[in-house]
Amino acid sequence: TAQWNDDAHNTLHVLLTGEHEGYYAAYADQPIQRLARILGSGFGYQGDPSPIHDDKPRGQPSGHLPPTSFVAFLQNHDQIGNRAMG
Predict the structure, then answer these.
(1) 14: domain range?
(2) pTM for the full model?
(3) What would the mean pLDDT of 50-66 be, rounded to a whole number?
(4) φ and ψ at 4, to 5 degrees?
(5) How many domains does the chain have?
(6) How far apart, in Å, do the first and last CA atoms of the chain sit?
C-alpha cells in the first residue's frame, strides 16, 4: 500500500515555479532542504509546525517506512483540476 505524497508535489511546484501563495506557502521556506528530507525519509512534514495551519504540528514521522510507501508526482488529476487553466 502506498500514499500520495502531496509534500513532494507541493515542494517541487514551489521549486520549479517560485509560487508560494496559498497552501504553497507551507513549502516556500527552505524548499531544497525540504525536498532532501522528502527523498530521504518520506514526507516533508513529520510533526513539524505548519505556517498555514496556525503552526500546529502536521504529519507523523515516516523515515521508518520503505520508499514504496510513497507516490511522488509532479501532477495528478486533483492538482491540475484545482485551477481554471490547469
Answers:
(1) 3-81
(2) 0.89
(3) 97
(4) -60, 135
(5) 1
(6) 28
- pLDDT tens digit sequence for 26-44: 999 999 999 999 999 999 9
CA 78 from centroid of its chain's CA atoms = 14
Distance between CA atoms of residues 61 and 43, nearest Å: 8
Residue 86 maps to a domain:
no
Grid cell for residue 77? 488529476
Judge whether 79 and 14 are in contact, CB under 8 Å: no
For 84, phi then psi, to 5°, come to -60, -35
DSSP letters spanning the chain: --EE-HHHHHHHHHHHH---SGGGGGG-SSHHHHHHHHHHHS-S-SSEEEGGGTTEEE----TTS-GGGEE--S--HHHHHTSTT-
